[in-house]
Fold this protein.
Amino acid sequence: MAEVRLENVSKYYGRKRAVQDLNITCGEGEFLSIVGPTGAGKSTTLKMIAGIESISSGTIYFNERPVNDLPPQERNVSMAFESYNLYPHMSVYDNIAFPLRAPRWRMHLTPQEESRRVREIAEFLGIDELLERLPQHLSGGQKQRVSLARALVKKPEVYLLDEPIAHLDARLKFSTQTLLKEFAVTYRSTIIYVTHDYREALGLSDRMVVLRKGRIEQMGAPEEVYNRPATDFVGKLIGEPPMNIIDGEMITKNRETLFTAGDLFTIRIRDDKVESMKRVARQENGRTVSRLGIRCEHIHISRKQISENSFRMPVYAIVHEAESSVVTFELRDILLYVRTRGEEGFRDYQIKDKVWLDFDQDNIFFYENTVDISKM
Amino acid sequence: MSRIDLDHIWKIYPRGDVVAVQDVSFVCKEREFLAILGPSGGGKSSTLRMLAGLEDISKGTISFDGKVVNELGPAERNVALAFESYALYQRLSVYENIAFPLKARGMKRSEVEKKVRYMAELMDLVPVLDTYPAELAGGHQQRVSLARAFIRKPNVTLLDEPISHMDQRVRAELRARIRRLHDDLGLTTIYVTHDQAEAISLCDRLVILNEAKLQQIGTVEEIWNSPVNRFVAYFVGEPAMNFVDGMVENDKRAIVATSAGKAVLPFTGTLEKQYISSKITIGFRPQQVTISRKKVDQGALVGSIKIIEFQGDTSILTIKLANEGGTEVKAVVEATQQYQPDESVWIQIKPDTIHLFDGDYPALQRNGSPKG
């Protein structure tokens, strides 16, 4: 297994920029996810690592050896795509065995050894019953698992997986995700994984890279990206419900610093958070505007006043989760999400009830305005 | 806003003699939000299409407010529909799209305007009323489609997976807006989905269909706490209910043989005498356990952590039990609790959250648990 390093890697299609100046290292045995919305440059990045796309500028290294000029078959990578690309005339068995038979790698497996490896991975992914079938007789979810098995059957320098479980139904997706993690942990494989689904990235990765329009928005461990989103964009992209992003105004009064969302609420900002608010605040029509971010589990809700900093709002709607509820509030044109879990009567709130809300200031963030939240 | 009665409904497709819906009966009360949940091929869509009048009913009756509607076409039933695809009129503005069902009925212009404004405000569409669907993002388009579905007072609103394919930012918002609309307008809504999280999020009661048959109908809590069979127990909840082989020791406790001796699991509820000393399947939900690093003498299973999947505010642990066969079970923990792979832990299971299954059916009866 290799360490994969991207150094100032850019990709242009004509004058259109797909990715720009990426610097990413995926350590040996590391599971690195690349996450972002459609068009962020995720697949392009993966294809450059595979050698399917040329690199416009910059260098890609496998174990410090530049691979820019190596064609895909010389790089010894294993890929699985969202589109399955199975050979239609070959059985599932032959499709999975195919990478083991590539002459370039001179594996010269005996038929018994080949069969053992194909059956082992097929059983692991729960498709061992399908080995004799042709791809045309498989469902989309089955095809996708065959494609994944074919990618995982050999031991390459790096596994490159592009949305490999996107087409599985919910239940199968979660169980296959766990299997993938088990695979990664067991074989200490170098895996670069592309997904638009933040849950897969959080659950699977050692580290994740958030891409936005071809640039890195944040890179770090899943806990870091979830708990401390670097920008409003990351906060909105990661988490369901997404992070609450509230635009407001910074006011200083009697040596206290307040954040006010107009007539909706005004809260005092704790001293140790004031600096971070000032850093991103900017002047707009004579007002100092600021953007506050807080996740739904960090807003407390109660029928009674919680602190002198809590405020009252009418409930807009309530949606449930198995062991929790999400109570929503209308803030002009956006909704505020508050998760309430487990405590007595958490299912008892009704729409239009006026309830008290309180922000946990250990977990509030201030951001520069980089996304139009009403359009996101 | 009607009460909907399905009385012994069948749908048989003559070609191939396929039974898509088999003897299904349930009631959707007036102003209720009912979700029909099941895997694909379970009979959900056929049921919805029969409700809408898009499909003949092979046997049985459907009534709206006590009046049989079997012979009525979709328009006469006054049913509003919204599907996964938005099906907006591309050449009409957002305003005209929403107004369409009203204009088609010859409503006065001033009246139409008033209603469209009201709906646009509820769905937060006022700023885009003069734009065209193609200019809008997917989430906005679905809001327009829902506004159009809800605008005339239908007898019942039928929603077929309208948000399951949207991305997570939009999904959370649409769920809240749909539920608010339902409550505000006093609608009767039937929502079809294969996604249990979607169903749980919105509905007052769940109807679970599988293999053409009704499995269970009840509130989320009833189904969560008292599933009528193993299919329902497994289908609702993510991660799904854990199942471990064990033995009934007496009518108060079950045991699981482990390498560290026998684990004793006390349970509440009533168990028939026939089960005592027999093999049983013990079920418990990953969301209802407590994980402890210290040895727990009773009411816990010991195992070692194999996989940890971070989810944001929670993590899912996959734990290999120290029983024969090393059964893998899952547990949901707060993400603030840090665990390591290979750590030994005790999974504490409260007596009132234990389920016992004899084959496909529950063996344990608790107060309020419905009979299958």
